[in-house]
Amino acid sequence: MKIVSYLRVSTRRQGASGLGLEAQQAAIAAYAAQRHGQVIETFTEIESGKLDARPQLAKALHLAKVTGATLVIAKLDRLSRNAAFLLTLRDSGVKFIAADMPDANDLTVGIMALVAQQEREAISKRTKEALAAAKVRGVRLGNPNGAAALRRAGRGNAASVQAIRRAADNHAVNLKPVLDALATEGVVSLGAVADALNERGMLTPRGGRWHKSSVRNLVQRLQA
């Protein structure tokens, strides 16, 4: 049995560190050993799960088609959370197997695809609901007066500085549900989180735009 292995991680940071790749490789290797298969080539994609345009996957499918090999992935959700994409792949003529459910048939894959799509939509809904709930509670997602308050504190007034820190702590707590929702969508890198917060119109504690450094400070504040 010839096998073309396809691995995917969501961010460049994960790709560089190998985070998640080892587990996928181990699952595929175990499947290959069980079926006495030979991995003829491995393709690794570093992209977002939402994107269906994947050059490495296209190469993997092409190689599997011309060699008659089976495309093997570690888990079905490594391919996409988009049902239409998975169903198209199912009908592409290339045999593919998920190592965690090797005996799945076309019907099973179709059902899993629809469930994956529903999960993606539910995650998006939870993100929006978390933001809406924060607004209903009167949470101000951003403090335009933060810098002015710091200047008034004179950087030497301990009580004022402490008040500003408490405000920043509260701001971080208010944003935590949004960060958690983004994490479930695979948005975890500092740059990606900053972009997502900016797209949603959320401000930093000082009323500015988010950058990698400010997201890092936010995460550290929540972990403190």
Features:
9 helices, alpha/beta, four-stranded parallel sheet, Rossmann fold
Overview of the molecule:
Helix 4 runs antiparallel to helix 5. The protein is elongated and about 70 Å long. The protein is an alpha/beta fold and 224 residues long. The chain has two domains: 2-114, Resolvase, N-terminal catalytic domain (Rossmann fold, 3-Layer(aba) Sandwich), CATH 3.40.50.1390; 139-223, no CATH class. Strand 3, helix 4 (83-90) and strand 4 (96-98) form a beta-alpha-beta unit. It contains nine helices and four strands. The protein has helices at 12-17, 21-34, 55-67, 83-90, 106-136, 146-153, 158-184, 190-199, 212-223; strands at 2-9, 38-46, 70-73, 96-98. Helix content is 58%, strand content 11%. The chain has a four-stranded parallel β-sheet with strand order 2-1-3-4, with helices on both faces.
What is this entry, summarized?
This protein has 224 residues and is an alpha/beta fold. It has helices at residues 12-17, 21-34, 55-67, 83-90, 106-136, 146-153, 158-184, 190-199, 212-223; strands spanning 2-9, 38-46, 70-73, 96-98. The radius of gyration is 23 Å and the shape is elongated.
Helix content: 55-70%
How many DSSP H or I helices? 9
For the residues shown, what is the average pLDDT?
A: 75
Our count of domains comes out at 2
SSE-based structural type: alpha/beta
CATH class of the largest domain: Alpha Beta
Question: Mind telling me which CATH architecture of the largest domain this is?
Answer: 3-Layer(aba) Sandwich
Uncertain regions: pLDDT < 50 for 5+ in a row? Answer: 14-19
